[in-house]
Specification:
- By secondary structure, the chain is of the alpha/beta class.
- The chain has 3 domains: about 20-215, Rossmann fold, CATH 3.40.50.300; about 220-280; about 285-360, Arc Repressor Mutant, subunit A (Orthogonal Bundle).
- It has helices at about 20-30, 45-55, 75-85, 95-105, 130-145, 170-180, 190-200, 220-225, 235-245, 250-260, 270-280, 285-290, 295-305, 315-320, 325-335, 350-360, and strands at about 35-40, 60-65, 110-115, 120-125, 150-155, 185-190, 210-215, 340-345, 345-350.
- The strands form 3 sheets. It has a 5-stranded parallel beta sheet with strand order 2-5-6-1-7, sandwiched between helices.
- Strand 3 and strand 4 form a beta hairpin.
- The radius of gyration is 23 Å and the shape is globular.
- Bound molecules: adenosine-5'-triphosphate and magnesium ion.
- Adenosine-5'-triphosphate binds near residues 7 and 19.
- Magnesium ion binds next to helix 2.
């Protein structure tokens, strides 16, 4: 059943709420053709934010959205850029194909139909082209288009470019980005170590984009929206926010489960039951994940999940019968696997559901 609280799909414009300050920041950025780097823990709402912003600004800007989560090669990356560009305009198919044919130097395009949705889109044909040729065609076309349009290019899961190692994609992007006019780049991503290393001092992309940490949604905004659909008090919304540790996806998931009983006044008990249901539904996959870890890493994960900080204390080491050095190297290993993350001196598990699952082990 669909509800006004999406948690496993992106929200429609009507379902999207909050983020007033972020919209303002985005508006200012693109107005002056500056660049922005939006980062946060996972599932805070980065993709929802940029998608909704694009929908609301598609008259004034040519918006190009690329998700590079699953790229496995540089060719993949270039192909995705081309595909996003080819499908960016809001024209009819015939006009678009005509426009693209005169825009691209080498890439040809053809219409394709999605067998699930029966919607048409445009497919770049790239079989005979090299990576360099594709990149050139993409950025050349972008520059041509920027003579008559203001453009925003959003690259989601941008940290994935670090997984391409046979070319220096960041250095290449720098060259193209520096030359631009009338084009804003918005980079989005969640793997903080990878992302920050791409934009840190002395890296090619250093200072090419203003970083913006996407904070959790405002409690007030959540309350204002949810009380339209639920019998819910401010205190309960605060409670949901607290147990979700501000993770948008979990907040939405709980609100969705509340919506299934929307005729009732929501109580803490109902919220606790919903939380348990969410954790249970992931039990199988978390067990599998947990079993891939060695013994010391399992212990380290438990300790991190429960204590968050100060866990090198002797009492804790004794309780879990683990040596300080062993714990340290296991924590480092979990960190490298991105199973845990760190903010100041506090560790956490970025997937809130998994964190709660671990706490209950
Ligand atoms: N402003 C919002 N209004 C309503 N729902 C939202 C909002 N922001 C996020 N959500 C919901 O929260 C869930 C997670 O959001 P989203 O996928 O945008 O996060 P993300 O930061 O891109 O996550 P990931 O790091 O996994 O890519 C989505 O199901 C979405 O519907
Ligand atoms: Mg996302």
């Amino acid at each position: 059943m669909s509800s006004p609280f999406p948690y496993d799909r992106l929200p429609t414009q009507d379902e999207f709420f909050g983020r007033v300050a972020e919209f303002e920041k985005l508006s200012q950025t693109v107005k002056y053709s500056n660049n922005l780097l939006i980062y946060s823990k996972r599932r805070m709402g980065k993709s929802s934010l940029i998608k909704t912003f694009f929908e609301q600004n598609s008259k004034e800007y040519l918006t190009i959205y690329v998700d590079i989560f699953d790229i496995t090669s540089k060719e993949d990356f270039a192909h995705k850029l081309l595909k996003a560009l080819a499908n960016a305009g809001k024209f009819d198919l015939k006009t678009t194909i005509k426009n693209l044919t005169s825009l691209f130097k080498r890439v040809r395009v053809e219409p394709t139909i999605d067998t699930n949705t029966l919607e048409y889109s445009i497919k770049p044909i790239i079989a005979t082209l090299s990576f360099e040729e594709m990149m050139e065609d993409f950025f050349h076309s972008l520059n041509e288009l920027s003579k008559t349009n203001k453009i925003i290019v959003a690259i989601d899961e941008f940290q994935q470019i670090a997984s391409i190692t046979d070319v220096k994609l960041d250095a290449m992007m720098r060259t193209y980005i520096q030359e631009r006019q009338n084009i804003s780049y918005v980079f989005l991503g969640s793997k903080r170590h990878l992302l920050t290393s791409l934009f840190e001092y002395k890296s090619p992309l250093y200072e090419l984009a203003t970083p913006m940490l996407l904070e959790p949604l405002d409690i007030d905004a959540i309350y204002e929206y949810s009380k339209k659909h639920l019998k819910v008090s401010y205190d309960i919304v605060e409670y949901i926010y607290a147990i979700s540790d501000g993770e948008t996806k979990m907040i939405q998931n709980i609100l969705h489960l509340m919506y299934l009983q929307k005729e009732k006044e929501i109580s803490k008990n109902m919220v606790d039951d919903a939380l348990q249901e969410i954790i249970n539904s992931k039990d199988g996959s978390y067990k599998l994940l947990f079993d891939t870890l060695g013994n010391n890493q399992k212990i380290a994960l438990k300790i991190v999940g429960i204590y968050k900080k100060g866990f090198f204390a002797n009492t804790i080491l004794q309780e879990y019968n683990i040596k300080k050095q062993t714990l340290q190297s296991s924590v480092d290993a979990l960190f490298a696997k991105e199973l845990i993350d760190k903010e100041d001196d506090r560790y956490f598990i970025p997937d809130r559901t998994f964190e709660l699952w671990v706490e209950r082990l």
